[in-house]
Write a structure and sequence with these properties.
Quinone Oxidoreductase, Chain A, domain 1; 17 strands; six-stranded antiparallel barrel; alpha/beta; six-stranded parallel sheet; Rossmann fold; single chain; binds NADP nicotinamide-adenine-dinucleotide phosphate
Length: 361
């Protein structure tokens, strides 16, 4: 039995191809292993960032590919089609981190009523969230369109939630206005929604082509194109949350706001225009936001279920916005996956679209 994997050249992300790989079948499936058919997965700019940081953040090691190539991790759903684990049945549905492939073998460990982990040796050494699978059979929150929203948004909105929590616990570093770059991205507008909900002013920074979409969301108090950020009034304290990773933009903002730039958080790299050495900028020193640190801190302070409960409440408030502003686009088969991958890489996906893919024909 063979699987189809979609792989990309690590040093040139525009080079990509599908390959056939051998799957263990019947008795060759190891003890406790599951053979999972990858049904559908979400694809956004976040997955491109996984590829850009593949070596640095060890994303490439999660789903091995032939020399020089990598398999980009995606969030999605799989169905167990063979099981050598006594407590996991064929037909079970899992939600978690998958390769861009038709199949994945999971070495099931820590199996509980609600989830399991892949204990494969090559998957260790990354944040635990990347090896955890939720058992979602029959769960309406993970079925149909709601399931698509989970795959498309849940990992992103978790980041939005954690950044909002980090800012709130620091009284927004004295700022009452937060600037967000790549304001049209799902991660950014999730954060804008949370900021807006707790009375902060959210200013979206975006490209000219996406200004209509960002304005229509209703969670930004103001929307400004990249070429006019210096027209913003500079006399009051601001915080900046950077989804774009654009060094020139960051420098422009820091020089414009100077000491009023009270906090500068780096989150994403959508523009892939980061200079290795950005020099010293006026105002608060830019720093990377590392979600696992905030998760660890809050897990300790809020206790078991504390994050999930608060995140669940935040998600309930966010979901209606998705129904209004996000059109889920489904594509199947290797050629369609290749096209969406390349369009996402090149920034050609309209922000109102959320792509759900499958390599299965
Ligand atoms: N650190 C973390 O843990 C973490 C977690 C979640 C997300 N993130 C990061 O947040 C960023 C947003 O991810 P997302 O999945 O929410 O994005 P998305 O919804 O797919 O956002 C797409 C937007 O990004 C900009 N963009 C994308 N590709 C581009 C390109 N090639 N050239 C120029 N602009 C491009 C455009 O926005 P504009 O025109 O508005 O610039 C575009 O509308 C990613 O870098 C992601 O990795 C980080």
């Amino acid at each position: 039995m063979t699987a189809t994997d979609f792989i990309v050249a690590r040093d040139d992300l525009e080079t990509c191809k599908t390959i056939a790989t051998e799957l263990p079948a019947g008795e060759s499936l190891p003890q406790d292993a599951l053979l999972v058919k990858v049904d559908r997965f979400a694809f956004t700019a976040n997955n491109i960032t996984y590829a850009v940081l593949g070596d640095e953040m060890k994303y490439w090691q999660l789903f091995p590919a032939p020399n020089g190539f990598g398999n980009v991790p995606v969030w999605g759903f799989g169905e167990v089609i063979a099981s050598n684990h006594p407590n996991v049945a064929v037909g079970e549905r899992l939600f978690g981190y998958f390769p861009m492939a038709t199949h994945l073998v999971i070495e099931a460990t820590d199996v509980s009523k609600r989830g399991l982990r892949d204990g494969a040796a090559h998957r260790q050494g990354v944040a635990p969230v990347y090896n955890a699978y939720a058992r979602v059979t029959g769960d309406p929150a993970y079925a149909g369109r709601q399931g698509d929203y989970q795959a498309l948004l849940r990992p992103l909105f978790m980041l939005s939630f954690l950044v909002d929590d980090f800012l709130a616990e620091n009284d927004d570093f004295g700022a009452r206005t937060v600037l967000l770059s790549s304001a049209s991205s799902k991660t950014a507008f999730g954060l804008a929604h949370l900021l807006h909900t707790r009375g902060r002013k959210a200013i979206g920074l975006t490209s000219a082509g996406n200004i209509g979409f960002v304005s229509s969301l209703g969670c930004y108090d103001e929307v400004v194109t990249y070429d006019s950020v210096t027209s913003l009034p500079s006399g009051t304290p601001v915080a900046f949350v950077d989804m774009a990773g654009n060094s020139a933009l960051r420098a422009g903002l820091h020089h414009h706001f100077c000491d009023e730039m009270k906090c500068s958080v780096r989150v994403g790299l959508t523009h892939r225009a980061t200079e290795a050495d950005e020099g010293v900028l006026p105002g608060a020193k830019p720093r990377w936001f590392f979600a696992p640190d905030q998760i660890r801190k809050r897990a300790k302070e809020w206790g078991p279920g504390g994050i999930e409960q608060r995140f669940g409440a935040a998600w309930s408030g966010f979901a209606p916005l998705l129904e209004r502003c996000l059109a889920v686009v489904e594509s199947r088969g290797p050629e369609a996956v290749r096209q969406v991958y390349l369009d996402t890489l090149k920034g050609r996906i309209p922000p109102e679209q959320g792509h759900m893919l499958s390599l299965l024909g």
